[in-house]
Amino acid sequence: MTTSPFDEPGAVAPVDADAATTTAATNADAAVPAHYGDPFGEQRAMTRRAGVVDRSHRGVLRVTGPERLSWLHLLLSQQVADLPDGGGTEALVLDAQGRVEHHAVLAHVDDTVWLDVEPGRAAALADYLDRMRFWSQVEVADETEAWALLSVVGPAVDEVLTSAGVPAPHGDHAAAALPGGGVVRRMPWPGPDAEAAVDVVVPRAEVGSWWSRLRGAGARAAGHDAYEALRVAALRPRLGTDTDERAIPHEMGWIGAAVHLHKGCYRGQETVSRVANLGRPPRQLVLLHLQSGDDPLPPPGTPVLGEEGGRAVGRLGSVVRHHELGTVALALLKRSAVTSAPGGAPLWVAPESEDLVAGPAAVDPDSIPPDTGEPPGRAAMRRLRG
């Protein structure tokens, strides 16, 4: 019987993405299997039936206490003051200039708010939250060592959960308690439809038994590379990979999903409000199609040029091999480069390493954010001047 996802036949550990390899894994993902011998087959399984992915390297925090929701509401970018029991959402912590410091996925179950974050970031978030407690009746605990996350993705996810004896909450980020401890939370991505994925937070000591339980219920073993490929195709950014130190929520497509435009009283709110009402974000996250063949994938941070030998207009984030789209990447580009991309000259990816091949790239037109017209604040100012 499988005792760990790494004990699964064919499990392949990630390799440093800066080395000359073909894996999509980054150093942050070194603790989980990259694939099980068939990355494209694992992707197809998650679009046609169901796959289970080891994401146990994510950090897990728990916030308890009678003031947990009202207190978090003052610190996070999302509306959480009235988050019901069994509800969930995504939220950001911004700095004073509105730049993204943390991204967390929340679940509110049985008087506890569970937050899971990118690998290696739980301690920093827990420290920030703990310093902001003052006299609030809350407790913050980094429990990454105690809890681990597995994801089940695919149109048959409910069949898998039912067979495994796991409750299947329905609704965007809806959550429920797991028998024996932990939570199961519905996710709107990266599956092929709105309810084709769940995250299951289980005791870390029981990851192996939960893995076997979900496998036995019909979920195929899928590596982290397959999960990342579907995430990129869904245009869902990842903090620290698709963002840089200057990234703001509007650039990343996090408005609505992780930022509530009509709540106030959180650090960085002024930048969010100013961009929403008076301007446009200086950059936009889009999907790029790359010409890489079997060449090693360029790492996050690789410059994107306006033309071969030209000036930099942005940076690559996650780069993956997708079973239908080919080699694609999330890229954070200047607005001018995005608006001129459709039908224009191709962009140019220029890796800094001599071991990696430079080449053309094209913006996927379906990934370009729609033009929402003149910002409301600017329109109001124009009317006043008129």
UniProtKB/TrEMBL annotation:
Domain GCVT N-terminal: 42-262
Region listing for Disordered, in residue ranges: 359-386
Pfam families per the UniProt record, alphabetical: Beta-barrel_CAF17_C, GCV_T
Domain of life, source organism: Bacteria
Keyword Transit peptide (UniProt): yes
Organism of origin: Actinomycetospora straminea
Keywords: Transit peptide
Gene3D superfamilies for this protein: Probable tRNA modification gtpase trme, domain 1 (3.30.1360.120)
SUPFAM superfamilies: Folate-binding domain
Domain CAF17 C-terminal: 293-344
Record lineage: Bacteria, Bacillati, Actinomycetota, Actinomycetes, Pseudonocardiales
Entry keyword Hydrolase: no
Protein name: Folate-binding protein YgfZ
